[in-house]
Amino acid sequence: MSQVPWISVSEARSAASTGKSVELRGWLRTRRDSKGGFSFLEINDGSCLGNLQVVAPGELSNYESVVKNLSVGCSLIVTGEIKASEGQGQATEMLATSVQMIGDADPQTYPLQKKRHTFEKLREWAHLRPRTNTFGAVTRVRNRISFSTHQFFQEEGFLYIHTPIITASDCEGAGQMFRVTTLPAENPPRDPQGKVDFSKDFFGRSAYLTVSGQLEGEIFATACGKIYTFGPTFRAENSNTSRHLAEFWMIEPEAAFFDLNDNMALAERYVKRILKDVLNDCAEDMQFFDERVEPGLIAALKVVLDKPFERISYTEAISILEKSGEKFDYPVSWGSDLQAEHERYLTEKHVQGPVILYNYPAAIKSFYMRMNEDGKTVAAMDVLVPRVGEIVGGSQREERLDRLLARMKELGLSEQDYWWYLDLRRFGSVPHSGFGLGLERIIQFVTGMQNIRDVIPFPRYPGSAEF
Ligand code: 4AD
Ligand code: MG
């Protein structure tokens, strides 16, 4: 055990560490041997984007035997004094008094050599890509957004609740659920009609992975007032796009006595809080994304922070699209769902910033949304942003029992399946609202990363569940 304190590379890079004798533990990013008989080692430990430059002098007892053979990717413990750096682009460096190699990385077989790899290639190495600059930065931003989420909702008086992962109800009514079963795939029990008999299954009924915690969230909102969930969500939709995952993380606030306007205002405050925190606390990572991934990113996000989100009703949006003179692949008309190209037009060309669309036709939205006075539209709202499109989907919920029952009947949903949801309208019903924000979508927006598969540690999508 060494006598000096172990500090992070992030701390070591701060001028405040100058003059201290410390220990660093991390991985070698590069080694450069100087003609003067010493070597430069760039060490990273994931605490920040930048490396610390360690000068390993030729006098070290293992200089020839170990230091000069260190290869990229090996793990190290180094000890020495932090000095003000004479080189450019860094405040400090370390003059090593000891360099200890902990785990080697064979240069013949270690995949992450200095050469740049495509994001597609790196997906095949999801076990090693966190060691790259981009994934390190994504990981830190993802962490900051998660932390901001809890800070924001806690400060606003929301209770964090845990909704089930395994559920019997299809919240979105879209039939895109993964079945959870312990029945044998071969020769499962069958009912007299020859269908698989799920009453013999583990839960005595059909069960699935959740597509949303909303319905259970409503149970708690109508008891505790303001709640939020933050958990994994699953969709068995066969979408091979840069914005869809089969497993993603969603944050779902739900608040009693909130109407659609309160809901939109909450979503705007929350998104802005995330942007503010990331710009403040992940400055170095954001600079990297701005330089390497999406030029102009930081300036664009600052504009978003300063401007109110534009609110446009679905009906107005359709007329804007019809009058745009753009040639869309999918034609627009009142009643049709908006495609990515339409969302992009609205956010990137028409508004040049975030847009909240509200009051959608009932026919293209879920059963639980509150019917408006016009009898055609529901109190739904989606937040759309440039490049990514929809990051938030939410609504005011139908709190009137008769309206909800009528809507469910129309859609062929069984009253029995939703008996407890209906009870919330029978006993002390209140107007209430909520939304879901896709964590990976907001990370894409904040970092400029183009593919959603590159902002989650282990992406699941059709045909892929490696790692
Ligand atoms: O619009 P969605 O489907 O809404 C709901 O699930 C509601 N129950 C939420 C609520 O009101 N409590 O999904 C909400 C958000 C979307 O706006 C999007 O950001 C994200 O979840 N999302 C996905 N993200 C990645 N991959 C997918 N397949 C996604 N589907 C939805
Ligand atoms: Mg949606």
Structure description:
- The mean pLDDT is about 95.
- The strands form three sheets. The protein has an eight-stranded mixed sheet with strand order 6-9-10-15-14-13-12-11, with helices on both faces.
- The two termini are about 35 Å apart.
- The protein has twelve helices and 15 strands.
- The longest helix is centred in the first third of the chain and has 23 residues, at about 135-155.
- By secondary structure, the chain is of the alpha+beta class.
- The protein is elongated.
- It binds 4-amino-1,4-dioxobutan-2-aminium adenosine-5'-monophosphate and magnesium ion.
Q: Key terms for this structure?
A:
29% helix; 12 helices; binds 4-amino-1,4-dioxobutan-2-aminium adenosine-5'-monophosphate; binds magnesium ion; alpha+beta; 467 residues; eight-stranded mixed β-sheet; 23% strand
